[in-house]
Amino acid sequence: MDVGTLLIINLVISIAIILFLIMVLKINPSIAMIIACLYMGIASKLGVMGTITQISDGFGSMMSSMGLPIGFGVILGQLLSDSGGASVIAETLVRKFPAKKALYAIAFTGFVLSIPVYFDVTFVILIPIGFAITRQINKPMAYTTGALTIGATTAHCIVPPTPNPLAAPDIFGFDLGIMLIFGLIFGIITVTVSVFLYTKIHDRHFWNEEKDVNHSSNVVKELEEQGKVIKENRPSFFISLLPIVVPIICILCGTVGTAIFGEENQPIISQFLGNKLTALLLGALASYLLGYKYIGKKNIENSAGEALKAAGVVLLITGAGGSFGAVIKATDIGTILVDKLGLDTSSAIVVLFLAFFIGFIFRVAQGSGTVAGLTSMTIMATLAPTVGIHPVYIAMACLAGGNSVGHVNDSGFWVATNLSGLTVTGGLKTYTLGSFISAICIFILAIIGALVFPVF
């Protein structure tokens, strides 16, 4: 057996190890990925110490670039939520839309909130408003749950500073501002198109009120009451937006500076502000200002502590993804994979389909969109230099695949299903369908972009 075939077999086995450890033995994804790294490196003749060195270097490289920005981003989202700013943004945006566009209102509100806040928190904040919208439009809860899922999962999938889109530029080697610009453009188009398609599907008597609604659940009544609670001493809408807007403006300053002056000659101020560490630090400080005024110093400390608990898991998974990528890169399997599979890397569509497929398989198999997106991106990063398109399109395809089919092994599925008072089949017809439609839209936009503007 030649070396190339052996490397491909080792990669397949490594992926199988990750899936087996996560799905069957319920081992933490970060540990599963490191074990797979050990197998891949040793079996591919990198040597025991060489493999460990690659694992350590990959983890360290990823953390030096991503560790603090992810931590700051999680703190930003937690404080924005706890200070009441997220609720103010949600209520204001929903009111600004005309009544007949209520589903688009909840979808885009979910999109905005999920830029700094994780999906689960976004859903908890918005679902009481969702019940009011459901009564307003006189349609089943499926419409609101699906629209909210589309908006929230789309932003979480492709708009920094959530972990995967924040990691994509480092993995593929391009500017974070490019990811932000494409994420916002693709995201707005995706939410608009996906809500339209999702609504049309449900208009065709797709929903069964008897089988798809959990009639024994009291959660709907409890959350409706929660939504009626009037919260005083909350920030204004524009002040609430500051933690979101500040890092976005900073990142775009860096991108614009690079475009005008070049990478080496741009002013120091745009380099400083455009760095993701600076941008997210300033965003976190803006969220602290909210917290000081609206929840007090003691509650700020508790809120930040809760945020860091959540950040720990994300950081480990992200770092382990860096280790996996370093080992894969050291084996030079990207070039070998292209040769053995006979892939035409001059065909953007072929490469993008492969990127989507890898993310799709991981998402369906083990549930975590973070693991699916990171793993597919680390594998495809070895192929990206051989393809004649900008790597942002490959990153989008990977992330779309990693967001494609969320079902019973995905925690987000249960959050959406239970808080909406639905059965498992109801969850599949809302959360799963909504996230799948949005993933396909992102993937199609990546293909269109790669064909029309391959490089820029």
UniProtKB/TrEMBL annotation:
Keywords: Membrane, Transmembrane, Transmembrane helix
Xref: InterPro entries: Glcn_transporter
Domain of life, per lineage: Bacteria
A GO CC term assigned to this protein in UniProt: plasma membrane
Entry GO MF terms: gluconate transmembrane transporter activity
Annotated transmembrane regions: 6-25, 32-52, 58-81, 102-133, 176-198, 237-261, 273-295, 307-328, 348-365, 377-402, 431-453
Protein name, entry field: 5-keto-D-gluconate transporter
Taxonomic source organism: Robinsoniella peoriensis
Gene: idnT_2
